[in-house]
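pinning this so it doesn't scroll away 📌
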Amino acid sequence: MKKNVTLPMILILLLICGCNSGETENSETRFLLDTVCTVTADCGDDIINGAFSLCENLERTLSKTVKDSDVYRLNNTDGFVSVSADTIKTVERALYYSDLSDGKFDITVAPLSALWDFKNQVVPNKDEIAEALQNVDYHSIEIKNGEISLNGKQIDLGGIAKGYIADRATERLKEKGVKRALVNFGGNICMIGEYNIGIKKPFDNSVIASISLKDKCAVTSGIYERYIEKDGKIYHHILDPKTGYGVENELAAVTVIGKTAIDCDALSTVCMLLGTEKGLEIINNTADTEAVFVDRENNITLSLGLYRENDKILFK
């Protein structure tokens, strides 16, 4: 069995461009949300610390492992549970993408994802997976008057919460008057101002292409983020809620670009689960949203609003 070493940042920052507001640019990195989180901003340390404090509070609300978090209480309580507005918004958006993807995106995969131990490289057996699949069905979730009932299911917001928290951190920076910032939460990137980012070549440390973005969010999902390699087969973490295993299609990674990280976060996973053709159809019918699809042979397919010139990806 071979243990993998993965990079915490899926999008690699290549170049920071644009004008400086005159403030000293500061950067701080912390380990939050089970990943490396970096905030670089044209402001003082106190403002960056405030953004991180907000993230810590949201993690305590949305984490499935933090005792007494909203998600922990939902997963361990029968009936309706009163939760925060942050949890309601995140779950409602998750359910929207569940419907959009015909159930391929499903936050009730918690019993299934709990079986896969990527840290210790443990592959569950078929019987365990079959049993867990019986408890996966997002239709069981009810939301009413600020309360949520899972009706016996358990949720994992790992496919959408980081995006929501990155959005909230970016909003906090804007509220404090920050004119230029880059928020990077494990590949969930939000920016204030213009930045040039590189898209990582799957299973490689090199950059396959770059794109210049201004006041956008960009999120990448890929099969190389977390995986187990056993007996010559790779088992990755983007689980198909219909089979219980990592989804099998031609894709290695998808980067989605849009206005909010919560939507880009969910859409990047949706596209990975659906494959290039169906993923493109969704992206091309979603306003102000573009995507870069990279298959397992490192071929790039772009949504309708993008085109490529050599190693540069540009907007039409």
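📌 and the second one:
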Amino acid sequence: MLRIIDLKPGNEAAIQQTAQLLFDSFKDHWPDAWPTVEEARQEVTESFADDRVSRVAIDETGTVLGWIGGISQYNGHTWELHPLAVSPAVRGQGVARALVHDLEAIIKARGGTTLWLGTDDEDHQTSLAGIDLYPSVWEHITAIKNLRGHPFEFYQKLGFVIVGVMPDANGLGKPDIFMAKRIT
């Protein structure tokens, strides 16, 4: 049975599992994000700040299956979803969806109106990568295609829409795709 709970500073076992999960989840597609487990642990530790939300999905044994974070911005009206990581063993089983819905409920209860995220394309997973998006950025956005399992379609299924792109955010031809949704 899946439960979603706050990840707190004193829960050492969950913190270590979450850091390992974050490292493992991104090492193949975005290895520079958290190149070591220790750097992933630093990200977990930073999620305990007052202007953040840090939640984990655990199973009946307390094993961390997924982690989601939220960062307050614009005086709490807008929140950034950062990060989202789910164990490969349970992907496709609704863990990520449950974590996003949980985060939305918390943000809404705190008076937030918008949830946004950036979803990088460093591996040419969409038609926006590997090309010069200038000067017709919106033309390219409206014609976006998912070429190799990029997560933007997962977020679209949850009601997020593409609200912009930062061309070359991660180097030439490697954009960051910005998505957002109203949660009120």
